[in-house]
Amino acid sequence: MQIKNTRMFRGFAAVITLALAAGALGGCAAPATKAVALASHDSFIIPDELINKFKTDTGFYLEGGAKLGDTGELTNKLVLTKDSPVADVVFGIDNTFAGVAEANGIIDGELVAIDYADVCFNYDKRWFAKAGLTPPTTWRELTDKKYAGLTVVQNPTTSSTGLAFLFATIGALGEDNWPLWWAKMRDNGLKVTAGWEDAYYIEFTAGGGEGKYPIVLSYSSSPAFTVDEADGESTTASINSECFRQIEYAGVLKNAKNPEGARALLAFMQTKEFQAAMPGANYVYPIDESVELPEAWAKFAPASASFVDVSGLDFDANRKKWQKQWLEIVQG
User: What is one GO cellular-component annotation here (predicted)?
Assistant: First the structure.
């Protein structure tokens, strides 16, 4: 299995669509079923209008499949069921688990990049203005005593967001120094939650609840969703320095019951219409850079220009070890 990890493929979706159409006109045998089953992580959404368009454009329709937890759970469950997969196509294996998919041979052909997100910290602009405190410009500053008791993150053993940031600290600081940074964060009043929703919506001061923490681990896209209608300005901002770029892939599963339908869905996910829906439906950036971002995204949620190079990290060999180390450091 290979990973197709390109961020620029203008016209590629059209080529695939034409190829599928040509195959159909050329007298290919009709598949046994028109139903296509999709496996994904829990948070993936395809808008109804795109589900209907997929059926209209291709003759296939979405039916069955399953949402299988977070990215790690999704990948691991597909490995366990690879001889008799629960779906025809998968969406949501990311660059931290792509190696697991490859090592276990669960993909027929290539994993294809569909979207990306930049994991980074967000802060509450109003809180900092009221406190008369200058916001941090990098996560390395969060160990400073002036930011004591202000930060909430997710547990990397239970959250893909938390795990991505753990990898970012390891990539940026190195094997010897990342534990020291986390120990300083622990001593600086770090708050840890199980998942992103609790951190953002409950603990974050700008998350809509009664949170006490004005700095939260989230995404560079998040400020696009905190725009105040009264003045048209976002109440939050992201710290777009040394982020973790999380790339999500889709692929046809080996032993799929409807591989032709799965390939049609994979091609459909790369069309401009599908790509344009990704920001609003899933809070991620389309992998096709020719797709125009929504106005609020362009203004308040640009993708990071500074992200950590983690290409030298072996996620699969070290994931459990690093998670255990983190638990010992942060939670004792």
Answer: outer membrane-bounded periplasmic space
